[in-house]
Amino acid sequence: MAIQSVNALFVALLAVALSATTGRALFAILIAGGFHALLVYADRVKSSVLHAHVIYADSHIVPMLLLDPSLVFGFIVKSPWHAVIGLTVTVATLVFAWKGHKLRAPAVARLLVTVGSLAIFATFLFSARGIAPTDPQWNVFQQTDETPLYGVMANIVYGMRASAPVAPPGDPNSQQRLISSLPIRNAEAKLTRANTITPDIVIVQSESLFDPSTLCGTHDDSQLPAITSGRHGDLMVPVFGGRTLQTEFETLTGLPVAMFPNANFSYLDLIPGSLNALPRELSRLGYRTIAIHPNDRNFWRRSYAFPAMGFDSFIDIRSFSGVDVGAGGHVTDKALMTAALSEIDADKGPSFIFVITMENHGPWGGHGTSELDDYTGRAQEADAAWRNLTEQLAKRGRPAIAVLYGDHLPGLPETYSSRCFKDGQPPERHMPPVAVWSNIPGDDRPPPTASFLIPGWILDTAHLPRSQLFAINGAIGLIAEQDGMAAVDRLKTDYAASAWNWLRNSDPVLHSRAPLKPNAIAKMLTHSLVKGHRGSWTPQDLLIDATPTPDAAVVLQLDGKTRSITFRPYPGSSSCDETDPIEVRVDGRVVGRIRGAPGANLATINTTDASKLSLMSTPESGVAKCQSTVIRVVQVDR
């Protein structure tokens, strides 16, 4: 009971402070009570979708959610009319309360009450002991599950008091103890040694992926036939229903985030500077490292995190257009796979492409479609895109490795409340699938078993040299494969401490290439046939006529400092399936021809030391396939 008083104390203190400040008691009570009610409602929604409760760390991501409210709004309000009605009633009530009775207390007395209330309020929130009762049973590692026992506000207050800069677990001897342990030494001895193969590497993080056939009342045949027909399994990930960045961070760094209880949003909490992550490891081996994600580049702080981990290019939502968007309102997985393959084709050297999909992002259902039917349809699109990716990689004949995994299970509250899982386990006990493909001779290893073990698995399968961090990561992955995750758990504390130290370095954080701003593109153009912005075109789009004449060329004047430019060609009309080739000249020399199609074909042109680049349509016959081609300037590497 004493613990529950924290929730009432919060509302009372806030109401007193607001009442003294405004002189309107009813208004203050409504604001304080309404704020607490909003927290309770947010906690209920989060619990139903993510199977976790609201915690203090959630306050850090509110600004990011405002970048794309659609990612969460559909889970909160099923109909826009509900939001309109609720907002109208709330505003009307607050206006009525504001115009009501006003306290007649002297201004000095109200000021003293306000200052006193705020002082008590600050002590209540920020003091380690504070005036609120404490409970030694409250556990920072389990704070997402503590709300039913303590209440929403009490759980948030305790989380605030427990928040501190992330420190590595373990002790000074962790590293030596880990390296000299018998299981690690035995596993390292079994791993393959490096050779001269440098395969292309594609990792696909598939949004909210799971197989609906695992649910009761569904056919036993997999709804993901391409994924389950090859090497596949279940992947242990740190989250359920959301917080993609946690799984993503583990995959790219090899660090298990569960060992850091205050790192609920790893890109905010665990990237103090440059990291020796997988992209940087591959970059040092001569790889081009490219991240592709069709969302705002600032969401989850990826605009900082990706360069810090060693990506030299980040292709975001601005590189795509309306023709790439599927029925769910997001860029399709098919378009992303096309973009990944285009980036591989753009260079003769090895590439590492990390794809983060969005097509299967919730909410699901509506418009006469059930939640599960909508989800299943989009999951099948992800499966088809994976089949296309692996088939195209096989046709190229170059050594390649591809890994696909689900970042977490989807938040399907209606489905989970009406259907069980066939194995009888609750939803949060299930893990998303992982599938692997490669054409490396002799590669027959099963997929990795946990997201933080993917880096070592990749480097070992590719037979690439690896730093101590990823050598140990690979050894732990082999232990998990042979002896199960229970054997890994005995090493986890020492591994997390060691990995945290190995990850950090003092290299400067380089900023990934970003789409050039429209005004900068305009300065590069000396002649353009841009005829307005129709449909989804932007000022980054150049319109090229089909007529092959010098006047129809688009010319970009360069300053000799531009290393490469990435273009995205696509038909200027929805009636065209494919465009005529676009001839690309650098300083008058033909360097290639690119062709536009509805998919996200990308073409990266080397412009090192160049002063001029021109683009011109070159029909292969007397009749043009399209009257125009739109070419989007995706990125400029300087």
UniProtKB/TrEMBL annotation:
Coiled-coil regions listed in the entry: none
Keyword terms: Cell membrane, Membrane, Transmembrane, Transmembrane helix
CDD domains for this protein: LTA_synthase
Entry GO CC: plasma membrane
Major localization class: membrane
Subcellular location: Cell membrane
Domain spans labelled Sulfatase N-terminal: 199-439
The keyword Cell membrane is assigned to this record: yes
Pfam families noted in UniProt: Sulfatase
TM segment ranges: 79-98, 107-126
Domain of life: Bacteria
Topology with respect to the bilayer: Multi-pass membrane protein
PANTHER family for this protein: LIPOTEICHOIC ACID SYNTHASE, PHOSPHOGLYCEROL TRANSFERASE I
Protein name: LTA synthase family protein
Organism for this UniProt entry: Luteibacter yeojuensis
